[in-house]
Specification:
4 helices, two-stranded parallel ribbon, 2 domains, 18% helix, Beta Polymerase, domain 2, six-stranded mixed sheet, flat, 21% strand
């Protein structure tokens, strides 16, 4: 007869303690390590002062031809990113544009808009962007004008000015003498105020028009 294997004896407990089940963790859970305090962010350096506009005066052959034709009516000329900029008297704007088209071959009016500078004596600048297909060259013409002062229309020079001058009138209130039909183009004819003027609040509306035509109070 074979002998039976001896029974396995449970492991003896260490002196002064109880037997812990195999694979059991310590009776006290490990405490998480204390988080280190976040380092204070370094102070931000002060913002650099705004750079003043640096203009490169321009007196090339193009400018000399305009000055030879219009004299002191060409008030300034400078170069900005390889583009010539002329500042001319508003009263001479149409004549300057005719010369630019006929003599300098700037046959396309790319854009006509305005900028509002409320603190300047001449509050507005009418800005024309011209392009010459023959020379592959651009020219920017600016005409400062005061609030309430009219500017000669250039619709007879470039017909595309028709809608552009209407938009300029609609948004800034600048009038163009000689325009064949100067009236608002984006807003209703009865609208009060000119939304792209700097003193026209972003929430301002024509309260009477909104109440009459939309049946709500302005600002809702």
């Amino acid at each position: 007869m074979g002998t039976e294997p001896p029974e396995k004896q449970p492991p003896s407990a260490p002196e002064g303690g109880e037997t812990k089940p195999a694979g059991s963790a310590s009776s006290e859970p490990a405490k998480p390590a204390a988080a280190k305090p976040a380092a204070a962010a370094p102070p931000k350096p002060p913002a650099p002062p705004p750079k003043k506009e640096e203009r490169t005066p321009l007196d090339n052959d193009l400018v000399k031809r305009f000055r030879g034709r219009f004299g002191e009516a060409v008030r300034e000329a400078w170069l900005d990113r390889k583009q010539a900029i002329l500042v001319v008297e508003a009263a001479k704007l149409r004549a300057v544009c005719e010369f630019a088209r006929d003599s300098e071959k700037f046959d396309m009016l790319v854009d006509l808009t305005a900028v509002d500078w409320p603190k300047r004596e001449k509050r507005f600048e009418v800005v024309l962007q011209l392009y010459s297909f023959a020379k592959n060259e651009r020219l920017r013409v600016k005409a400062p004008t005061a609030d309430g002062e009219s500017v000669p229309s250039v619709t007879a020079v470039w017909p595309t000015a028709g809608w552009l001058e209407r938009e300029c009138f609609d948004m800034f209130g600048i009038r163009f003498d000689g325009h064949p039909g100067l009236k608002r183009i984006l807003l209703p004819d009865e609208w009060q105020g000119y939304p792209l003027r700097k003193d026209y609040d972003i929430l301002q509306q024509d309260e009477a028009w909104v109440r009459e035509n939309m049946g709500i109070e302005s600002g809702q």
